[in-house]
Specification:
The complex is a heterodimer of chains A (273) and B (173). In chain A, the strands form 2 sheets. An 8-stranded mixed beta sheet of chain A has the order 2-1-3-4-8-7-10-9, sandwiched between helices. The radius of gyration of chain A is 19 Å and the shape is globular. In chain A, helix 3 crosses helix 4 and helix 4 crosses helix 5. With 273 residues, chain A is of the alpha/beta class. Chain B is of the alpha/beta class and 173 residues long. Chain B is 40% helix and 16% strand. Chain B is built from 6 helices and 6 strands, in the order βααββαβαβαβα. In chain B, helix 3 links the parallel strand 3 and strand 4. Classes of the chains: A alpha/beta (273), B alpha/beta (173). Chains A and B meet through strand 2 of A and strand 1 of B. Strand 2 of chain A pairs parallel with strand 1 of chain B.
Chain lengths: 273, 173
Protein backbone atom coordinates (compact mmCIF):
# COMPACT_ATOMS: atom_id res chain seq x y z
CA UNK A 1 0.00 0.00 0.00
CA UNK A 2 1.22 3.46 -0.91
CA UNK A 3 2.38 5.72 1.90
CA UNK A 4 1.42 8.69 -0.27
CA UNK A 5 4.84 10.17 0.52
CA UNK A 6 5.55 10.66 -3.17
CA UNK A 7 2.57 13.03 -3.37
CA UNK A 8 3.89 15.19 -0.53
CA UNK A 9 6.57 17.82 -0.14
CA UNK A 10 7.76 16.40 3.14
CA UNK A 11 10.41 19.11 3.51
CA UNK A 12 7.57 21.62 3.99
CA UNK A 13 6.31 19.85 7.10
CA UNK A 14 5.32 20.45 9.85
CA UNK A 15 2.17 22.00 8.38
CA UNK A 16 0.63 25.22 9.67
CA UNK A 17 -2.69 23.72 10.78
CA UNK A 18 -3.66 23.84 14.47
CA UNK A 19 -3.86 20.72 16.62
CA UNK A 20 -7.28 19.17 16.04
CA UNK A 21 -7.82 20.80 12.65
CA UNK A 22 -9.58 18.58 10.14
CA UNK A 23 -7.81 19.98 7.08
CA UNK A 24 -5.16 17.26 7.15
CA UNK A 25 -7.87 14.61 6.95
CA UNK A 26 -9.20 16.22 3.77
CA UNK A 27 -5.65 16.47 2.37
CA UNK A 28 -5.12 12.75 2.94
CA UNK A 29 -8.49 11.98 1.34
CA UNK A 30 -7.44 14.00 -1.73
CA UNK A 31 -4.14 12.08 -1.90
CA UNK A 32 -5.93 8.73 -1.68
CA UNK A 33 -8.21 9.78 -4.52
CA UNK A 34 -5.32 11.01 -6.70
CA UNK A 35 -3.36 7.84 -6.02
CA UNK A 36 -6.28 5.56 -6.80
CA UNK A 37 -7.03 7.31 -10.08
CA UNK A 38 -3.36 6.87 -10.92
CA UNK A 39 -2.74 10.43 -12.08
CA UNK A 40 0.78 11.62 -12.92
CA UNK A 41 2.01 14.38 -10.63
CA UNK A 42 3.08 16.44 -13.66
CA UNK A 43 -0.45 16.27 -15.02
CA UNK A 44 -2.16 17.72 -11.97
CA UNK A 45 -2.46 21.40 -11.07
CA UNK A 46 -3.72 22.27 -7.61
CA UNK A 47 -4.95 25.84 -7.13
CA UNK A 48 -6.03 27.57 -3.94
CA UNK A 49 -6.99 31.00 -2.62
CA UNK A 50 -6.34 32.33 0.88
CA UNK A 51 -7.07 30.69 4.20
CA UNK A 52 -6.17 27.60 6.19
CA UNK A 53 -7.52 25.20 3.57
CA UNK A 54 -5.73 27.14 0.84
CA UNK A 55 -2.36 26.19 2.35
CA UNK A 56 -2.97 22.62 1.19
CA UNK A 57 -1.25 22.89 -2.24
CA UNK A 58 2.02 23.94 -0.58
CA UNK A 59 2.34 20.41 0.77
CA UNK A 60 1.41 18.55 -2.40
CA UNK A 61 4.11 17.73 -4.96
CA UNK A 62 2.16 18.63 -8.08
CA UNK A 63 2.02 21.90 -10.03
CA UNK A 64 0.67 24.25 -7.38
CA UNK A 65 -0.72 27.80 -7.31
CA UNK A 66 -1.49 29.64 -4.08
CA UNK A 67 -3.34 32.71 -5.28
CA UNK A 68 -5.17 35.72 -3.86
CA UNK A 69 -8.24 35.76 -1.62
CA UNK A 70 -11.35 34.43 -3.35
CA UNK A 71 -9.64 34.11 -6.73
CA UNK A 72 -8.67 30.43 -6.78
CA UNK A 73 -11.40 29.74 -9.35
CA UNK A 74 -10.34 32.61 -11.61
CA UNK A 75 -6.71 31.45 -11.68
CA UNK A 76 -7.88 27.86 -12.12
CA UNK A 77 -10.13 28.90 -15.01
CA UNK A 78 -7.08 30.48 -16.66
CA UNK A 79 -5.02 27.35 -16.13
CA UNK A 80 -7.75 25.10 -17.54
CA UNK A 81 -8.31 27.29 -20.61
CA UNK A 82 -4.57 27.51 -21.32
CA UNK A 83 -3.87 23.86 -20.53
CA UNK A 84 -7.00 21.72 -20.92
CA UNK A 85 -4.72 18.67 -20.63
CA UNK A 86 -4.13 19.33 -16.91
CA UNK A 87 -6.35 17.96 -14.16
CA UNK A 88 -7.13 21.13 -12.25
CA UNK A 89 -8.11 20.75 -8.62
CA UNK A 90 -9.19 23.77 -6.60
CA UNK A 91 -8.80 23.75 -2.84
CA UNK A 92 -10.71 26.48 -1.07
CA UNK A 93 -12.68 27.27 2.06
CA UNK A 94 -16.18 28.46 2.91
CA UNK A 95 -15.03 32.05 3.35
CA UNK A 96 -12.71 32.11 0.34
CA UNK A 97 -15.21 30.51 -2.05
CA UNK A 98 -18.56 31.89 -0.96
CA UNK A 99 -17.79 35.37 0.41
CA UNK A 100 -15.03 37.20 -1.45
CA UNK A 101 -15.06 34.56 -4.20
CA UNK A 102 -18.82 34.09 -4.24
CA UNK A 103 -19.38 35.34 -7.75
CA UNK A 104 -16.50 33.33 -9.17
CA UNK A 105 -17.96 30.28 -7.50
CA UNK A 106 -21.44 30.52 -8.99
CA UNK A 107 -20.21 31.55 -12.43
CA UNK A 108 -17.59 28.80 -12.66
CA UNK A 109 -20.40 26.36 -11.82
CA UNK A 110 -22.73 28.00 -14.35
CA UNK A 111 -20.07 27.74 -17.09
CA UNK A 112 -19.49 24.15 -16.11
CA UNK A 113 -15.75 24.41 -16.63
CA UNK A 114 -13.89 21.19 -15.86
CA UNK A 115 -12.56 21.98 -12.39
CA UNK A 116 -12.75 19.85 -9.26
CA UNK A 117 -13.42 22.00 -6.22
CA UNK A 118 -12.70 20.60 -2.79
CA UNK A 119 -14.27 23.12 -0.43
CA UNK A 120 -13.29 22.76 3.22
CA UNK A 121 -16.23 24.08 5.21
CA UNK A 122 -15.34 24.77 8.84
CA UNK A 123 -18.09 27.39 9.32
CA UNK A 124 -15.60 30.18 10.04
CA UNK A 125 -12.63 32.25 8.86
CA UNK A 126 -10.07 30.31 10.85
CA UNK A 127 -6.75 31.80 9.79
CA UNK A 128 -7.64 35.46 10.21
CA UNK A 129 -9.15 35.17 13.67
CA UNK A 130 -12.54 33.47 13.66
CA UNK A 131 -14.65 36.00 11.77
CA UNK A 132 -18.17 35.03 10.73
CA UNK A 133 -18.39 33.52 7.23
CA UNK A 134 -21.35 33.01 4.91
CA UNK A 135 -21.36 29.40 6.17
CA UNK A 136 -21.50 30.20 9.88
CA UNK A 137 -24.80 28.70 11.01
CA UNK A 138 -27.34 31.22 12.28
CA UNK A 139 -26.90 31.82 15.99
CA UNK A 140 -23.35 30.45 16.19
CA UNK A 141 -20.66 32.66 17.60
CA UNK A 142 -17.69 34.16 15.80
CA UNK A 143 -15.21 36.92 16.68
CA UNK A 144 -17.31 39.31 14.60
CA UNK A 145 -20.60 37.81 15.81
CA UNK A 146 -20.12 37.71 19.58
CA UNK A 147 -23.88 37.40 20.13
CA UNK A 148 -24.34 34.76 17.45
CA UNK A 149 -24.56 35.07 13.68
CA UNK A 150 -27.65 37.05 12.77
CA UNK A 151 -27.73 36.06 9.12
CA UNK A 152 -28.91 32.82 7.57
CA UNK A 153 -26.03 30.74 6.23
CA UNK A 154 -25.49 29.41 2.73
CA UNK A 155 -26.15 25.79 1.92
CA UNK A 156 -23.03 25.62 -0.24
CA UNK A 157 -23.81 22.34 -1.98
CA UNK A 158 -27.28 23.64 -2.87
CA UNK A 159 -25.72 26.87 -4.13
CA UNK A 160 -23.42 24.97 -6.51
CA UNK A 161 -26.27 22.74 -7.64
CA UNK A 162 -28.51 25.72 -8.37
CA UNK A 163 -25.70 27.45 -10.26
CA UNK A 164 -25.30 24.49 -12.60
CA UNK A 165 -22.51 22.26 -11.32
CA UNK A 166 -22.23 18.79 -12.91
CA UNK A 167 -21.32 17.02 -9.70
CA UNK A 168 -22.10 18.09 -6.15
CA UNK A 169 -21.48 16.10 -2.98
CA UNK A 170 -21.00 16.68 0.72
CA UNK A 171 -19.31 14.57 3.40
CA UNK A 172 -17.64 15.13 6.74
CA UNK A 173 -14.12 14.25 7.90
CA UNK A 174 -15.78 11.86 10.33
CA UNK A 175 -16.06 9.54 7.32
CA UNK A 176 -12.74 10.03 5.53
CA UNK A 177 -13.05 6.85 3.46
CA UNK A 178 -16.40 7.97 2.08
CA UNK A 179 -14.94 11.41 1.50
CA UNK A 180 -12.08 10.11 -0.65
CA UNK A 181 -14.49 8.14 -2.83
CA UNK A 182 -16.56 11.27 -3.43
CA UNK A 183 -13.39 13.23 -4.26
CA UNK A 184 -12.38 10.48 -6.67
CA UNK A 185 -15.75 10.69 -8.42
CA UNK A 186 -15.51 14.48 -8.52
CA UNK A 187 -12.03 14.36 -10.11
CA UNK A 188 -13.17 11.79 -12.68
CA UNK A 189 -16.26 13.84 -13.53
CA UNK A 190 -16.02 16.10 -16.56
CA UNK A 191 -17.39 19.55 -15.79
CA UNK A 192 -17.59 21.63 -12.64
CA UNK A 193 -17.61 19.38 -9.60
CA UNK A 194 -17.79 20.26 -5.95
CA UNK A 195 -17.12 18.22 -2.85
CA UNK A 196 -18.02 20.14 0.29
CA UNK A 197 -15.90 18.63 3.05
CA UNK A 198 -17.15 19.48 6.53
CA UNK A 199 -14.15 19.85 8.81
CA UNK A 200 -13.75 20.99 12.42
CA UNK A 201 -11.96 24.17 13.53
CA UNK A 202 -11.51 23.73 17.28
CA UNK A 203 -9.38 26.88 17.59
CA UNK A 204 -11.59 29.53 16.00
CA UNK A 205 -15.05 27.95 15.93
CA UNK A 206 -15.30 25.16 18.47
CA UNK A 207 -13.82 27.20 21.29
CA UNK A 208 -16.31 30.05 20.85
CA UNK A 209 -19.27 27.71 20.45
CA UNK A 210 -18.41 25.41 23.34
CA UNK A 211 -18.12 22.43 21.03
CA UNK A 212 -15.31 20.83 22.94
CA UNK A 213 -12.07 19.41 21.63
CA UNK A 214 -11.22 17.98 18.22
CA UNK A 215 -12.60 14.53 19.01
CA UNK A 216 -15.88 15.96 20.26
CA UNK A 217 -16.15 18.13 17.17
CA UNK A 218 -15.62 15.15 14.85
CA UNK A 219 -18.20 13.28 16.91
CA UNK A 220 -20.57 16.22 16.39
CA UNK A 221 -20.08 15.97 12.62
CA UNK A 222 -20.75 12.24 12.74
CA UNK A 223 -23.86 12.50 14.93
CA UNK A 224 -25.38 15.31 12.89
CA UNK A 225 -24.68 13.73 9.49
CA UNK A 226 -27.85 12.68 7.73
CA UNK A 227 -27.70 10.88 4.37
CA UNK A 228 -29.65 12.86 1.81
CA UNK A 229 -32.41 10.25 1.40
CA UNK A 230 -33.16 10.23 5.11
CA UNK A 231 -32.97 14.06 5.29
CA UNK A 232 -36.20 14.27 3.29
CA UNK A 233 -38.06 12.60 6.15
CA UNK A 234 -36.81 14.99 8.85
CA UNK A 235 -38.96 17.65 10.47
CA UNK A 236 -37.94 21.30 10.16
CA UNK A 237 -36.65 21.22 13.73
CA UNK A 238 -34.58 18.08 13.11
CA UNK A 239 -33.20 19.60 9.91
CA UNK A 240 -31.88 22.68 11.65
CA UNK A 241 -28.55 21.22 12.72
CA UNK A 242 -28.49 18.33 10.27
CA UNK A 243 -25.53 18.03 7.90
CA UNK A 244 -26.97 16.44 4.80
CA UNK A 245 -24.45 14.16 3.12
CA UNK A 246 -24.21 12.28 -0.14
CA UNK A 247 -24.24 13.05 -3.84
CA UNK A 248 -26.76 15.73 -4.74
CA UNK A 249 -25.98 16.22 -8.42
CA UNK A 250 -24.38 13.93 -10.99
CA UNK A 251 -25.37 15.02 -14.48
CA UNK A 252 -23.66 15.43 -17.84
CA UNK A 253 -23.67 18.88 -19.37
CA UNK A 254 -21.55 20.53 -22.08
CA UNK A 255 -18.16 21.42 -20.59
CA UNK A 256 -16.82 24.95 -21.14
CA UNK A 257 -13.21 24.36 -22.25
CA UNK A 258 -14.37 21.73 -24.77
CA UNK A 259 -17.14 24.00 -26.05
CA UNK A 260 -14.58 26.75 -26.45
CA UNK A 261 -12.20 24.48 -28.39
CA UNK A 262 -15.11 23.50 -30.60
CA UNK A 263 -15.97 27.14 -31.24
CA UNK A 264 -12.35 27.85 -32.23
CA UNK A 265 -12.45 24.87 -34.63
CA UNK A 266 -15.70 26.06 -36.13
CA UNK A 267 -14.43 29.59 -36.69
CA UNK A 268 -11.30 28.22 -38.36
CA UNK A 269 -13.33 26.46 -41.02
CA UNK A 270 -13.19 28.33 -44.29
CA UNK A 271 -16.32 30.34 -45.04
CA UNK A 272 -18.19 28.74 -47.97
CA UNK A 273 -17.93 30.81 -51.14
CA UNK B 1 12.55 29.92 -14.85
CA UNK B 2 10.94 26.80 -16.25
CA UNK B 3 7.55 27.14 -17.94
CA UNK B 4 4.70 26.36 -15.58
CA UNK B 5 3.53 22.73 -15.53
CA UNK B 6 5.92 21.75 -18.34
CA UNK B 7 8.80 19.34 -18.68
CA UNK B 8 8.38 17.84 -15.22
CA UNK B 9 9.25 21.01 -13.30
CA UNK B 10 6.70 21.10 -10.50
CA UNK B 11 6.90 24.24 -8.46
CA UNK B 12 4.81 26.37 -6.16
CA UNK B 13 3.63 29.90 -6.83
CA UNK B 14 2.18 31.96 -4.00
CA UNK B 15 0.71 35.42 -3.69
CA UNK B 16 2.18 35.74 -0.18
CA UNK B 17 5.63 36.96 0.80
CA UNK B 18 7.87 34.06 -0.12
CA UNK B 19 11.39 32.70 0.13
CA UNK B 20 13.73 32.00 -2.76
CA UNK B 21 12.05 28.65 -3.43
CA UNK B 22 8.63 30.31 -3.84
CA UNK B 23 7.04 29.10 -0.60
CA UNK B 24 5.38 31.44 1.93
CA UNK B 25 7.57 32.62 4.76
CA UNK B 26 7.15 34.70 7.92
CA UNK B 27 10.88 35.28 8.33
CA UNK B 28 11.35 39.09 8.50
CA UNK B 29 14.81 38.85 6.93
CA UNK B 30 13.45 36.89 3.95
CA UNK B 31 10.45 39.20 3.53
CA UNK B 32 12.61 42.31 3.76
CA UNK B 33 14.96 40.87 1.14
CA UNK B 34 12.03 40.07 -1.17
CA UNK B 35 10.46 43.51 -0.92
CA UNK B 36 13.77 45.31 -1.43
CA UNK B 37 14.54 43.10 -4.42
CA UNK B 38 11.17 43.86 -6.02
CA UNK B 39 11.48 47.57 -5.29
CA UNK B 40 15.04 47.77 -6.60
CA UNK B 41 13.96 45.92 -9.72
CA UNK B 42 11.41 48.64 -10.46
CA UNK B 43 13.90 51.42 -9.72
CA UNK B 44 16.56 49.80 -11.90
CA UNK B 45 14.17 49.65 -14.82
CA UNK B 46 12.64 53.11 -14.43
CA UNK B 47 13.78 54.12 -17.88
CA UNK B 48 11.93 51.18 -19.41
CA UNK B 49 8.79 51.81 -17.35
CA UNK B 50 8.50 55.63 -17.43
CA UNK B 51 6.30 56.64 -20.31
CA UNK B 52 5.63 60.33 -20.83
CA UNK B 53 4.18 61.92 -23.96
CA UNK B 54 5.17 65.54 -24.52
CA UNK B 55 3.64 68.07 -26.86
CA UNK B 56 5.06 71.56 -27.25
CA UNK B 57 7.04 71.39 -24.02
CA UNK B 58 10.34 72.53 -25.60
CA UNK B 59 9.41 76.21 -25.69
CA UNK B 60 6.41 76.16 -23.36
CA UNK B 61 5.82 78.88 -20.80
CA UNK B 62 2.71 77.27 -19.36
CA UNK B 63 2.64 73.48 -19.09
CA UNK B 64 -0.38 71.30 -18.50
CA UNK B 65 0.18 68.12 -16.52
CA UNK B 66 -2.68 65.80 -17.45
CA UNK B 67 -3.13 62.07 -16.93
CA UNK B 68 -5.76 59.74 -18.32
CA UNK B 69 -8.91 60.96 -20.07
CA UNK B 70 -8.25 64.54 -18.96
CA UNK B 71 -5.15 64.51 -21.17
CA UNK B 72 -7.26 64.42 -24.33
CA UNK B 73 -9.07 67.63 -23.34
CA UNK B 74 -5.72 69.08 -22.28
CA UNK B 75 -4.19 68.34 -25.69
CA UNK B 76 -6.98 70.23 -27.40
CA UNK B 77 -6.64 73.10 -24.93
CA UNK B 78 -2.88 73.33 -25.51
CA UNK B 79 -3.40 73.49 -29.29
CA UNK B 80 -6.15 76.11 -28.89
CA UNK B 81 -3.95 78.19 -26.59
CA UNK B 82 -1.09 78.04 -29.09
CA UNK B 83 -3.45 79.17 -31.84
CA UNK B 84 -4.17 82.20 -29.68
CA UNK B 85 -0.49 82.92 -29.20
CA UNK B 86 0.20 81.38 -25.79
CA UNK B 87 3.22 79.06 -25.54
CA UNK B 88 1.47 76.11 -23.93
CA UNK B 89 2.76 72.56 -23.62
CA UNK B 90 1.33 69.20 -22.61
CA UNK B 91 3.07 66.82 -20.19
CA UNK B 92 1.14 63.57 -20.29
CA UNK B 93 2.43 60.70 -18.18
CA UNK B 94 1.11 57.32 -19.29
CA UNK B 95 2.61 55.66 -16.22
CA UNK B 96 2.13 57.03 -12.70
CA UNK B 97 4.35 54.69 -10.74
CA UNK B 98 7.17 55.12 -10.42
CA UNK B 99 6.18 58.79 -10.65
CA UNK B 100 8.22 60.63 -13.32
CA UNK B 101 9.44 63.11 -10.70
CA UNK B 102 12.75 64.01 -12.38
CA UNK B 103 10.98 64.82 -15.63
CA UNK B 104 8.40 66.96 -13.82
CA UNK B 105 11.18 68.81 -11.99
CA UNK B 106 12.98 69.43 -15.29
CA UNK B 107 9.76 70.79 -16.73
CA UNK B 108 9.15 72.99 -13.69
CA UNK B 109 12.58 74.61 -14.13
CA UNK B 110 11.77 75.56 -17.72
CA UNK B 111 8.20 76.86 -17.51
CA UNK B 112 6.53 79.69 -15.63
CA UNK B 113 3.77 77.52 -14.24
CA UNK B 114 2.29 74.03 -14.44
CA UNK B 115 -1.47 73.66 -14.39
CA UNK B 116 -2.94 70.35 -13.25
CA UNK B 117 -6.52 69.67 -14.35
CA UNK B 118 -7.93 66.53 -12.74
CA UNK B 119 -11.25 64.98 -11.83
CA UNK B 120 -10.25 65.12 -8.18
CA UNK B 121 -9.66 67.88 -5.69
CA UNK B 122 -5.89 68.04 -5.84
CA UNK B 123 -4.59 64.49 -5.48
CA UNK B 124 -2.47 64.76 -8.63
CA UNK B 125 -1.62 68.44 -8.11
CA UNK B 126 -0.14 67.49 -4.75
CA UNK B 127 2.12 64.91 -6.37
CA UNK B 128 3.24 67.39 -9.04
CA UNK B 129 3.90 70.04 -6.39
CA UNK B 130 6.03 67.57 -4.48
CA UNK B 131 8.07 66.77 -7.59
CA UNK B 132 8.50 70.41 -8.65
CA UNK B 133 9.80 71.41 -5.21
CA UNK B 134 8.99 75.07 -5.67
CA UNK B 135 10.75 75.45 -9.03
CA UNK B 136 7.52 76.98 -10.41
CA UNK B 137 3.94 77.54 -9.26
CA UNK B 138 1.58 74.58 -9.58
CA UNK B 139 -2.03 75.55 -10.35
CA UNK B 140 -4.62 72.93 -9.41
CA UNK B 141 -7.98 72.61 -11.14
CA UNK B 142 -10.55 70.09 -10.05
CA UNK B 143 -13.90 69.19 -11.52
CA UNK B 144 -16.00 66.83 -9.43
CA UNK B 145 -19.56 67.33 -10.66
CA UNK B 146 -19.54 64.05 -12.54
CA UNK B 147 -18.89 65.50 -15.99
CA UNK B 148 -15.55 65.36 -17.80
CA UNK B 149 -13.32 68.41 -17.96
CA UNK B 150 -13.82 70.31 -21.23
CA UNK B 151 -10.98 71.61 -23.42
CA UNK B 152 -12.40 75.14 -23.04
CA UNK B 153 -12.05 74.96 -19.26
CA UNK B 154 -8.39 74.03 -19.51
CA UNK B 155 -7.80 76.67 -22.21
CA UNK B 156 -9.30 79.30 -19.90
CA UNK B 157 -7.08 78.01 -17.11
CA UNK B 158 -4.01 78.32 -19.35
CA UNK B 159 -4.96 81.85 -20.37
CA UNK B 160 -5.61 83.01 -16.80
CA UNK B 161 -2.38 81.45 -15.62
CA UNK B 162 -0.44 83.05 -18.46
CA UNK B 163 -1.94 86.44 -17.55
CA UNK B 164 -1.40 86.24 -13.81
CA UNK B 165 1.70 84.07 -13.39
CA UNK B 166 3.81 84.91 -16.37
CA UNK B 167 4.28 87.22 -19.28
CA UNK B 168 3.42 84.92 -22.11
CA UNK B 169 5.28 85.48 -25.31
CA UNK B 170 3.74 85.03 -28.71
CA UNK B 171 4.60 81.83 -30.48
CA UNK B 172 5.63 82.19 -34.11
CA UNK B 173 2.91 80.72 -36.27
Amino acid sequence: MSTYDEWLRLDKFPHIWCPGCGDGIVLKAILRALDRIGLERDGVCMVSGIGCSSRTPGYVDVNTLHTTHGRALTFATGVKMARPDLKVIVVTGDGDATAIGGNHFIHAARRNIDLTVILYNNWIYGMTGGQVSPATPTGKRASTAPFGALEPNFDIAALAAAAGASFVARETVAKPFVLDKLIERAIRKKGFSLVEAMTPCPTAYGRRNKQGDAVEMVEYLKVHSVPKDRAATLSAEEKREAITTGVFVDVDRPEYSEEYARLVERLREPVPA
Amino acid sequence: MAAYARDGYRFHVTGLAHDETGFPTNDPAEIGRLNHRLHDKIERHRRDIDDVVLEGCDDAEIAVFAYGCVSRAARQAVRDARARGIAAGLFRPRTLWPFPGDEVLGLGRKVRAIVVPEMNLGQMAHEVEWAVRGACPVVPFGRVDGLPIRPSQIATLIEETARTRASAVAVPA
